């Protein structure tokens, strides 16, 4: 197993440190375009998958097709920058990203298809991380609540959290 040499302070700017250190259920970032929100979330997603075997991610956006064009592509780029893209399988037609050593998943959904969200299950660990990209675009809080409420249940890892 190769050693991954990650320097967290170099990977993200200070404003995004809580994203990497907090165990809180909800973290919200707002800020001008290009201020690093999406990049930092992508780094968090990749780092969590590699370092926490219980973690699977759901990435939600208003529309499934914009999710594919933005977050899926960004995660590919960030995994390459972090030197771990070879550990992931990127299926752009689903879209879906699999961490090859364990089968952990990064899944993508659009709030335009709410039924596709409530029926998700993962092969290993828990579906315990949700990244809502451009959350202001969601038309109602209900769309968020449906997904939020599906994020529950016992996490096997004693340090695990939602
Ligand atoms: N370590 C880093 N963290 C965040 N963004 C970075 C980093 N290094 C370079 N960038 C660049 O800064 C910009 C951040 O944009 P983005 O994450 O899309 O911002 P936002 O989502 O807030 O609009 C991108 O052009 C990205 O390539
Ligand atoms: Mg963004």
TrEMBL record:
Pfam families: Terminase_3 (PF04466). InterPro entries: P-loop_NTPase, Terminase_L_N, Viral_DNA_packaging_terminase. It comes from the Bacteria. It comes from Periweissella fabaria. This is Phage terminase large subunit N-terminal domain-containing protein. Residues 23-152 form the Phage terminase large subunit N-terminal domain.
